[in-house]
Design brief:
Radius of gyration: 20 Å
Helix content: under 10%
Number of strands: 15
Distance between the termini: 33 Å
Shape: globular
Strand order of the largest sheet: 4-5-6-7
Order of helices and strands: EEEHEEEEEEEEHEEEE
Length: about 210
């Protein structure tokens, strides 16, 4: 087991990455798993009127997510989201709160396939909140009335599919998820050759 600490400027520990490694017969180490532990601090002080996240959500699932969680703020509401993993799916549970009353205004569940190759995240786009999935980018209506699945660029979709069944030593296994700019034009992903930037309009890829 190997531990690496991230420190604040004053030297106080922010988080601790704990790596579990295996040892081959010849003595080389290989990666098995990694977990990050966050250390509680008193570095920040909240002032003014506010509501704590537990009081806001009152839902255990928001803290029990094993894959992803996130939030999205509009002019008059806050959307909180977290994932659950029943059987072969990842399900995003989204809940919208009216900032005037802090009452639930709407809810929406968004199912998608499981994947070990991406980080399930809630991101912001020019069209509103979106969820990263292994089979598409899920665009969410700000009132949580519905969602639309936007197809991924072919190079990213193929990278995810190839990595799912690949041996960890193969080049295909190095695919490590994606991100996209708010206008949905530039897509960032990482493969065996490094960090790649795809211009969706021109098809150009820069490494």
């Amino acid at each position: 087991v190997i531990s690496h600490e991230s420190l604040y400027v004053d030297g106080e520990v922010d988080s601790r990455d704990i790596y579990t490694m295996g040892v081959r017969e010849e003595g080389d180490l290989y990666f098995i798993s990694m977990v990050t532990e966050y250390v509680k601090t008193n570095l920040g002080n909240v002032t003014g009127e506010y509501m704590t996240l537990p009081a806001l959500s009152e839902k255990d699932w928001i803290y029990q997510s094993t894959r992803g969680s996130g939030s999205y703020v509009t002019a008059d509401s806050v959307i909180l989201g977290a994932t659950d993993e029943p059987e072969d799916q990842v399900i995003w549970h989204l809940e919208q709160y009216d900032t005037g009353t802090w009452q639930t205004a709407a809810t929406l569940d968004v199912p998608m396939p499981k994947s070990s190759q991406i980080t399930f995240r809630m991101i912001s786009t020019d069209q509103g909140p979106a969820l990263t999935g292994p089979d598409g980018l899920y665009l969410i209506k700000e009132d949580l009335s519905s969602y639309e699945k936007l197809p991924l660029p072919q190079v990213i979709l193929e990278g995810i599919q190839a990595a799912e069944g690949a041996n960890w030593e193969s080049p295909e296994a190095h695919f490590a998820g994606y991100d996209v700019t708010a206008d949905l034009r530039y897509w960032l992903y990482c493969d065996a050759e490094g960090l790649q930037l795809l211009d969706q309009e021109t098809g150009e890829i820069r490494c």
